[in-house]
Amino acid sequence: MGIILTEGQQDFLTECRKKLAPGQCGWQIGNELYTGNATVDQQCCSRLLDMGEKCHKELLKNYLSSPDHANINATEVWQRSDILWSRCSKISAHP
């Protein structure tokens, strides 16, 4: 069983997801975090940073808490997340 969210938490995550849409940014970020195979482009890095670290971490925590994703190595995903955030901070024209 995953984390049980309050309505406020669900609304927060919904708003976070909207910040990555439209386009392929959610897919690029997920692919890089979960498979390590993709490289998030500069535009999606900018969207990730605009979304904010709290949104990013809460979405990731919610995803990893699902029983459907129990076979994912969460430690590796969190490490990739830190690397991605750092890289995006360097390549994106973001304050």
Structure description:
This is Prolamin-like domain-containing protein. InterPro entries: Bifun_inhib/LTP/seed_sf, DD11, Prolamin-like. Keywords: Signal. The longest helix has 18 residues, at 74-91. The protein starts with 6 loop residues before the first helix and ends with a helix. Helix content is 68%, strand content 0%. α1 crosses α4 (53-64) and α2 (25-35) packs across α3 (42-51). It has one domain. It is mostly helical.
Q: Quick gist of this model?
A:
By secondary structure, the chain is mainly alpha-helical.
Secondary-structure map with pairings?
Layout (H helix, E strand, L loop, with lengths): L6 H14 L4 H11 L6 H10 L1 H12 L9 H18 L4
Helix pairs in contact: 1-3, 1-4, 2-3, 2-5, 3-5, 4-5
Pfam families: Prolamin_like
Protein name: Prolamin-like domain-containing protein
Keywords: Signal
- The number of helical elements comes to 5
* Computed Rg: 13 Å
Name the structural class.
mainly alpha
Number of domains: 1
- So what's the oligomer here? single chain
Shape: globular
- Give the helices and strands as they follow along the chain: HHHHH
Q: What's the total count of β strands? A: 0
Main sheet summary: none
Helicity, as a percent range? 55-70%
pLDDT < 50 stretches? none
Kindly state the mean pLDDT as a whole number? 89
Distance between the termini: 39 Å
Strand content: under 5%
